[in-house]
Amino acid sequence: MRIGILGYGTVGSGLIDIIDKNKDKKNIEIVSILVRDKSKYEGINHYDKLTTDIEEIFSKNLDVLVEVMGGLYPSLEYIKRALKSKINVVTANKDLLAESGDELLKLAKDNNVSIKFEASVGGGIPVLKPLIESLEGNNINSICAILNGTTNFILSKMYNEGLSYNEALKQAQELGFAEANPDSDVLGYDAARKLSILSTLAYDNRVYWKDLYLEGITNIDEKDIEYAKKLNCKIKLVGQSKYEDNKVSGFVRPVLVGSNSILANIENEFNAVVLNGDSVGEVSFVGKGAGKLATGSAVYGDVMDILNNRISSIDSFTKEKVDVNKVLDENCSALLRFKSNHKDEIFSVLKEKIKNYDILNEDEELAVLVYANSEIEINDILSEIQNKGYCSQVNKLIKIN
Ligand SMILES: NC(=O)C1=CN([C@@H]2O[C@H](COP(=O)(O)OP(=O)(O)OC[C@H]3O[C@@H](n4cnc5c(N)ncnc54)[C@H](OP(=O)(O)O)[C@@H]3O)[C@@H](O)[C@H]2O)C=CC1
Ligand SMILES: N[C@@H](CC=O)C(=O)O
């Protein structure tokens, strides 16, 4: 099988290492590799296959085009061109799937070829294939997941080793986990795109990432970590969605999770996806969510599926878009931090409105863990405190079970 590869970075080089390792067993021939700047790659394997000209790639009579260069443009254009030319596509690009999955899957179907994208969610974890194939006998009710390796790495390093946010981000970039623009990781966009892909497939309805409640990790500081430890919790960037009565609720946000929960024990670049199906119950998938060989492994698996004609049809991306509820409409607790000179006034509002709360700090700032009937109730109280001028800046961190 003749494959062309767009990109020889973290994922591209992982894929190429795995193809080379298996070359005696599997009939895959790398015929051309697209990069921007060949001079960066002198001395590497397959240097003679490198090109900066996309026309050369398309001149090679390909069976599969692997897109691992990232971004929306020109990746979208190249993938569409491949599908229209009846070339199968494998991609790790969640930005593209989340934005244009409907168009791309339809184009693949119309041209009788496949587009496969296992690596776009959870890096090396095989989760899309089990979801699409093995769990077909289920209505999936909920997804609770850690879907970004970079932010999980940063939060783990801050919590376990006391690293600063900037030091931890730098390490994640050096290890090849972060996106070309790491804002996509730390602001939560990457995890939201992955959650939208998972939710679309799980609920068989189109869920758009921009409809999810979205909050990144850039406001998490040492004090949050300190309170988390006091509460026997960890802080994780969690993506959660639920499907009930044809409605989806969903968010990506940093949350407190109890130290004994599955998600609390997912460290560094590892990801986890916990699905709940009406037949199977709870199923968990855990593994490396980012990195060269782990992600290369998922891309390689997709290439092998095409080689062996193991293809399943996917219609969910072309289904109707569903409305998404953004607030947590259930009993919840939250860590609230107030920087204020009006502590007594804040306490009197809390006493009047909240069913219960624990004080964590009342010296340099006021920090409380409140227990409420819903997030809406907490938001109403915060609005009252702010409107009365008792505090202009509040930090809120929800705790999930
Ligand atoms: N890193 C990871 O752990 C994971 C990444 N992904 C996804 O995989 C994709 C690739 O990520 P990653 O390998 O980390 O990215 P890198 O930045 O490490 O590599 C990108 C590669 O693509 C090439 N490239 C980028 N833009 C162009 C262009 N316009 N024309 C030609 N070549 C181009 C670069 O060439 P040059 O060096 O010459 O600029 C480089 O070889 C992304 O979609 C990412 O989201 C998915 C899961 C995990
Ligand atoms: N930047 C992403 C890479 C994999 O999708 C992450 O950190 O998870």
Automatic annotation (TrEMBL):
Gene Ontology molecular-function annotations: homoserine dehydrogenase activity
Main enzyme class: oxidoreductase
Keyword annotations from UniProtKB, A to Z: Amino-acid biosynthesis, Methionine biosynthesis, NADP, Oxidoreductase, Threonine biosynthesis
A Pfam family matched in the record: Homoserine_dh
Metal-binding keyword on record: no
Alphabetized PROSITE patterns for the sequence: HOMOSER_DHGENASE (PS01042)
Domain Aspartate/homoserine dehydrogenase NAD-binding stretches: 7-118
Pathway: Amino-acid biosynthesis; L-methionine biosynthesis via de novo pathway; L-homoserine from L-aspartate: step 3/3; Amino-acid biosynthesis; L-threonine biosynthesis; L-threonine from L-aspartate: step 3/5
EC number: 1.1.1.3
Catalytic activity: L-homoserine + NADP(+) = L-aspartate 4-semialdehyde + NADPH + H(+)
InterPro entries hit by this protein: Asp/hSer_DH_NAD-bd (IPR005106), HDH (IPR016204), HDH_cat (IPR001342), HDH_CS (IPR019811), NAD(P)-bd_dom_sf (IPR036291)
Residues annotated as domain Homoserine dehydrogenase catalytic: 126-304
Homology family: Belongs to the homoserine dehydrogenase family.
NCBIfam families per record: PRK06349.1
Protein name, UniProt field: Homoserine dehydrogenase
Species of origin: Romboutsia faecis
